[in-house]
Fold:
Amino acid sequence: MNFKVKRIGLESGGKPIVVLNREDAESMGVRSLGRVKLSYNLRERVAIVNTATELLSRGEIFLYEEVYKYLGAPDGGLIEVEPVGFPRSTEYIRNKLRGRQLDSNEIREIVKDVVNGALSEVEITSFVIALAKEGLDLDEAVSLTNAMVETGDTLVLDKEVIVDKHSIGGVPGDKTTLLVVPIVAAAGLCIPKSSSRAITSAAGSAERAETLMNVELSVDEMRRVVEKTNGCIVWGGAIHLAPADDIFVQVEYPLSIDPLLLPSIMSKKKAVGANHLVIDIPTGRGTKIKTIGDASLLSKDFIELGKRLNIRTQCAITYGEQPIGHAVGPALEAKEALEVLSRRKVVPDLIDKATHLAGILFEMCGLEAGQKRATEILASGMAEKKLREIIAEQGGNSNVKPEDIAIGSHHTNVLSSNGGYVLWIDTAKLVEVARVAGSPRDKGAGIILNKKLGSRVKQGESLFTIYAESSVKLQRAEKMLEGLKIVAVGDKMEMLLDKIEDRPRHEKTFILER
Amino acid sequence: MNFKVKRIGLESGGKPIVVLNREDAESMGVRSLGRVKLSYNLRERVAIVNTATELLSRGEIFLYEEVYKYLGAPDGGLIEVEPVGFPRSTEYIRNKLRGRQLDSNEIREIVKDVVNGALSEVEITSFVIALAKEGLDLDEAVSLTNAMVETGDTLVLDKEVIVDKHSIGGVPGDKTTLLVVPIVAAAGLCIPKSSSRAITSAAGSAERAETLMNVELSVDEMRRVVEKTNGCIVWGGAIHLAPADDIFVQVEYPLSIDPLLLPSIMSKKKAVGANHLVIDIPTGRGTKIKTIGDASLLSKDFIELGKRLNIRTQCAITYGEQPIGHAVGPALEAKEALEVLSRRKVVPDLIDKATHLAGILFEMCGLEAGQKRATEILASGMAEKKLREIIAEQGGNSNVKPEDIAIGSHHTNVLSSNGGYVLWIDTAKLVEVARVAGSPRDKGAGIILNKKLGSRVKQGESLFTIYAESSVKLQRAEKMLEGLKIVAVGDKMEMLLDKIEDRPRHEKTFILER
Structure:
């Protein structure tokens, strides 16, 4: 049947959605959530059908922007519409939900349909839950990784050795990437680093780097920067590496499940051609991985999967029970990293972590005494020089000084009500306060931790300082602190950590950054 | 923040959806799929946020019809919009997904949010899958049933004894309801029957009855008909009994899972006040329940759940390996039922099934020799008279004769290519052919089965006749038959049922009618 196109100018967020008059839909036998195939000249597109009774006459079809742009039919033009059944991939998803293993063709079909929008929310959700409940074996993880690479863009570099570093996240203030990339690149190794923006955290590496340079590069621009400097720090979202992951994460986030952790990380590494990889697994309460035992199991999975994908992989299990360094929030963290790189400040845990990770990569590539070498590159100023080169190539101010970085002009100190030692820090709550203060959207918002684990604290001393770009957000953050214990100070003999007065509600503190 | 309303005239299919300019959404911290609370005068509504960049200026909000009508704010008027987090029910869903049992308050909260649209597709899908994967115990089934009743309309009748009958479906041609309702009502028992429309079958009871009378009654009209005649046959969808179920089924259908079978059936019975119930469980290949063992287990579940809900329940396990009677399709089935009621035809299996089910209800209510009594009521013409009363009260032609019912004018006979006995009938495929011919939307479309199981067939004899309202659809049905074996004729000694030449694709033949 032919339908007359009406452009409505709305986006559906990637899904190919069309709207039909309900009677047209029924007479074609298309139920709501059913699908139609649209044809215009030589272009075809399967779309999901919504129905309406008003404002839309019989014979008219509303196109969301995604479909409108793809088809290229003019507003008012005629397109052909015919009903189609569930795509084959829905059958595979049902099979997985019933516990059957999927083969690589089936997985490729599912991922392809996820990316081209042929699967509905219901079906994508089922697939993610099926993976979470039934698990995925190594073959399936390999197939998923490859399918996610195939359905996205890739970076092709004319290099034999390409290294990469990834943190599975979960620890606030982790500005390690801002040190590792220039250290590694300064040593002559190629590190095309793509980073993510924050989902639930106070800052992603992309936002940290964005306070110094442009991170929204195309694949071509990324290649140019890496060819010139050996490194880069770009936002992965702009270059469509493994776009399936961006869709899966929309499901995983509200459900707090993350069955695609390994394939989604490895697909983004494979898409930039990495063949030597170090994975940072922050471990501790408040992070995703609570114990060293769990971290070891996860490491084994990464290493095995890497082997199958021709990516030599090692894992670093790192301490994750408190923020790395003192700063939490994009600008505060970029400033702290720049202070360390320019040797104005010594932040021992940050330096230790960055040099260890860089050192592992060095040793994987045959360089001896890796950490020592990394420390020398940092201490010599070579790493600072390299970062400034990258900043220049990515359109930033290569002469930037730490004090040039704009920090929120409103701030408040949170004082300790008693003396003693810092016993624990609730990192998840700390992140929530930083987010209420404006992080990561307000780049100058965040927290500076004035005391860390084990520090001696006097009554009335400042535990941490909250920064915000607006007084309203600062007030909101202060209000949030009422009744909340974020930095616990006490005598090391105090055994009662907290008391529960009501049935506890599990606050959502799951951390999904990859 | 205040936003200016723009009505877009689109329906979202029940969900409260609004569209914001992407920058507005980001500055409020609302991600796509996030939620906002809308306020206008004293009306408040939580809605799910989509974003757009074109056609929508900052400070404007597009309202889908559902939200527009609920809020009552005029096009161009101002409403207040503020971000809200995930509703509490999402936490309960996550818990269930991890295997925790839900209490009645948690289930009520989930169902309430399903009905008022506060949960997204992702979250509703998760809930349904969690129930399917983790199972639900009796307490949870009771809570779900009650919650589904509470969130919908109910029928209140001033009667002590209210009976009901339900088939879990799966066998084509099952027009039993058209006989059971008048038989039971003629005996003086009150039976306020609500029926469903077909989802995957060739006809639902609502469509069968609709060829004789109006089935889209309000609760008030339903009460009036029952008070006058003791019975009725209405479409449940029009009276919003357990509307949560209509939403759950949208998820269950594409996934071919049905964890809510018991609560959804029982909630619709409880909503009409039934306290004596017979459940028909058709059993056999092609139906939902393949074996008598499975049927017994399911019966036990229904009886237990009924006990907890104060609905005395008995189950009838019935033979489901071939259609009931000969006719499949709304008008053909209504005609066959009317022929039996008016004693123009004897259709043994249909009569046996209807009188058994009515008989069980009679005996549950203290009347002896139930089936005998039912048979007498049918044979005496009392049942026919009662159906005509109901037809009259529901706005139909109470003098309708079987030959008045319009049957599709195009038909074709499907002949047997060999002689022998009917060995088996593929009921699922039979339904598919009927649907391609136009059932249930084209009321006159369908199939008349000329031979049933065990019948002697000569080569060239007609196995079944396909009826359609258009020649195009008839051709499509004929085309579908190519290479398809629906009625198998052979010698009883033939052992090879079929041969598989390629990896079989599991065709979707799951039957979800409730």
Q: What stands out?
A: Chain A is about 40% helix and 20% strand. The mean pLDDT of chain A is 91.
